[in-house]
Amino acid sequence: MWILLLSPSDIQTFNLSLMIFFKKLFFPFFLLISIHSYSQQRFFAEKATVSFFSDGVVEDISAANEKVTSIFDAVSGEVAYLMNVKDFQFPNKLMQVHFNEKYMETEKYPKSSFQGKISGFSLTASGKQEVKATGKLTIHGVTQNIDVPGTVEVNGNRLSVKSKFVVKLLDYNIKVPQIVWQNIAQQVEVTIDFVYRPL
């Protein structure tokens, strides 16, 4: 039988080497778990629709944009979306032309966006959750602070986010020609309907 005698300094060196060995061995594993966990907290909108409705005196106006890009961090609550205003589709194509050229001036202001936070949401809660979105909404080159209600519902690994709120045209310097002023409402009801999947 061999008996190996180690001095205290040798034992300390051995323990340190052992710790370094295990760190190198298991670090990629823990890093993979960390990345996977983080990816499960960030979501990308696989379906995103922003629509609006205006109750006009002569004719109602409605349109929908289904080419919206959005990301959502379920831990921090940070959320953002971006869209091209020209991607709104109208039942009436002439109305679509007027919308882009006379009201939204999409050649000059092509994008609309929102950046803010969703509060009142838990990724581990079940059922539909009443939430609030607070942040900056940019339309027609004008940015305003908004605070709107909404809901978030967890469906498996998908998140369904919905909201409905009113936008006043004057708040975003959207001018309606005097000749049609009485036919077009001065505010529109905006509906948000997003479905997120993990990144």
Explain how this protein is built.
The structure is a single chain. This protein is of the alpha+beta class and 199 residues long. The protein has two domains: 8-39; 42-198, Lipid/polyisoprenoid-binding, YceI-like (Lipocalin, Beta Barrel), CATH 2.40.128. It contains two helices and nine strands; from the N terminus they run αββββαβββββ. An eight-stranded antiparallel beta barrel has the order 1-3-4-5-6-7-8-9. Strand 6 (128-139) and strand 7 (142-155) form a beta hairpin. Mean pLDDT is 83; it is low at 29-39.
Features:
alpha+beta; 2 helices; 8-stranded antiparallel β-barrel; 2 domains; 199 residues; Lipocalin
CATH class of the largest domain: Mainly Beta
CATH topology of the largest domain: Lipocalin
Cα shape: elongated
Q: Look at the structure and name the CATH superfamily of the largest domain.
A: Lipid/polyisoprenoid-binding, YceI-like
Helix content: 10-25%
CA-atom Rg in angstroms: 26 Å
Which class do the helix and strand fractions yield?
A: alpha+beta
Termini gap: 58 Å
Percent strand: 35-45%
Secondary-structure blueprint of this entry?
Blueprint lengths: L7 H32 L2 E13 L6 E5 L3 E5 L4 E7 L8 H11 L7 E9 L8 E12 L2 E14 L2 E11 L18 E12 L1
Antiparallel strand pairs: 1-2, 1-3, 1-9, 3-4, 4-5, 5-6, 6-7, 7-8, 8-9
In short:
This protein has two domains: 32 residues; 157 residues, Lipocalin (Beta Barrel).
